[in-house]
Amino acid sequence: MKALWYYKRMDKLIVLLDADDTLLDFSKSENEAIKKTLAEFSIPVTQRIVERYVQINLHCWKLLEDGKITRVYLDRLRFDMLFEEFGIKNKDSVAAGAAYRAHLTESGYVLDGCVSFLEEISKKYRLFLVTNGTQPTQIVRLKSAGIEGYFEELFYSEQIGCAKPYKGFFDYVFSHIAGFDKDRTVLIGDSLTSDIAGANNAGITGVWFNPKRLPLSNRAVPDYVVSSYEELVSLLGSLDEERKDKAI
Question: Is the model's pLDDT at 6 over the cut of 50?
Answer without folding.
Answer: no
